[in-house]
Write a structure and sequence with these properties.
The structure is a homodimer. Chain A is mainly alpha-helical. Chain A has a single domain, classed as Methane Monooxygenase Hydroxylase, Chain G, domain 1. Chain A is 86% helix and 0% strand. The first copy, chain A, contains six helices and no strands. The first copy, chain A, has helices at residues 2-36, 39-70, 74-107, 118-141, 144-169, 177-209. In chain A, helix 1 runs antiparallel to helix 2 (39-70). The mean pLDDT of chain A is 92. Chain A binds chain B through residues 57, 64, 67-68, 71-74, 77-78, 81, 84-85, 88, 165, 168-169, 173-175, 177-178, 180-181, 184-185, 188, 212, and chain B through 57, 64, 67-68, 71-74, 77-78, 81, 84-85, 88, 165, 168-169, 173-175, 177-178, 180-181, 184-185, 188, 212.
């Protein structure tokens, strides 16, 4: 029985890692589709987010089965409950990648990136990709040091988010309301992506230490 | 033991209702602060969202205790697991009310609502308030018919969200990038608020019927 239970917990962890790795691929593709106005790649991102949602739902069902049948306690319970929340965050990260890809698709063949913001969005995309990679690493290794790295990356992302607004509200874009909308939404999506990565990190911290701070 | 357990489940439900009712107050105040550029009211909204987060964390702890000590099954388990997710959605609704209030505060003494969009945002705010009220009603009464009402309200909200973009991208706001940013963000916040109300409704459907669709 204990062996079956340990196997279930390993499966929860493996499935979280699997979903997180798919999120890495999705945000990488979304960032490239957005940067290069690659509409075919954008379509693929939009499809893959649905796949991640299905895997998330299947994982939720597994965790509910474990709660019902195996009554975990202490850190095992924290992992199972945490998995429910982490899968929700990972799904939201995939949704946000999808939204970024949708912006690229809407504006095609134009670019969704207003002039003067190309470098900033390239950097935001790279930060999102790096954060997603760190989330997958954290889920795989359960190394607490990765939590700190994720929080630091999120601080960098928040700074860039503030910078986008400064730029958009400067006088450079007054003849381009579409650019203002796109930059506002894209920046918000990137920033929220980082917030969800931090949520996963917090859940792992709760799992590893039993406290949320 | 069974009596203690039933009491715990009632407490979960009561706390969800309590949080949902606070969300109704918060989104009502946020909508008024945004519509009237009332900076004092905006400050109160920003404070109340933190209170809701604390209540949400306390409820999460209660549900984890119940999972650990009382090993619920079937619909009881669905309620407890659902409570974890619903509290997260209610907290996000409060966050979004906070973001709406922040927009009002940033622009004060100017209005955050660009000209020509006052009526649309008044309607979006009213829809958010109504949806939050329906969420509280659903949690209190557990009446499946309310789920349908919430979904219908969300459809209305999505239509208005699309309308805001049409308006913003028409040629009326080209001299007002701040207005474009504010309208884009505010509309997105309202739309996400509705999405989270629908998430709560879906969780209640799962609790009531055992299926997600």
């Amino acid at each position: 029985m204990r062996e079956v239970f340990q196997q279930s917990l390993r499966e929860v962890q493996e499935r979280l890692v699997e979903i997180a790795e798919l999120v890495v691929g999705t945000i990488t593709d979304a960032t490239n589709a957005f940067g290069d106005s690659d509409v075919a790649l954008a379509e693929r991102v939009i499809d893959s987010a649905d796949q991640i949602e299905e895997l998330g739902s299947a994982l939720d069902q597994l965790t509910i089965d474990i709660l019902a049948r195996q009554q975990p306690v202490a850190s095992d319970l924290r992992l199972v409950v945490g998995a429910l929340r982490m899968s929700a965050s990972l799904e939201r990260m995939a949704d946000l990648a999808q939204h970024i890809a949708q912006l690229a698709r809407y504006r095609y063949p134009e670019s969704a990136i207003p002039r003067g913001l190309k470098k900033t969005f390239t950097r935001m995309g790279a930060l999102d990709v790096e954060m997603a990679g760190k989330v997958a690493e954290l889920l795989r290794t359960q190394e607490a040091s990765v939590i700190v790295e994720i929080r630091d990356l999120d601080d960098d992302l928040d700074e860039l988010h503030a910078k986008v607004f400064e730029k958009v509200l400067s006088d450079k874009l007054t003849d381009n309301p579409t650019g203002v909308v796109d930059a506002t939404l894209a920046s918000r999506y990137h920033e929220r992506f980082g917030d969800h990565a931090v949520s996963v990190a917090k859940q792992m911290q709760f799992f590893l230490s039993g406290t949320m701070d």
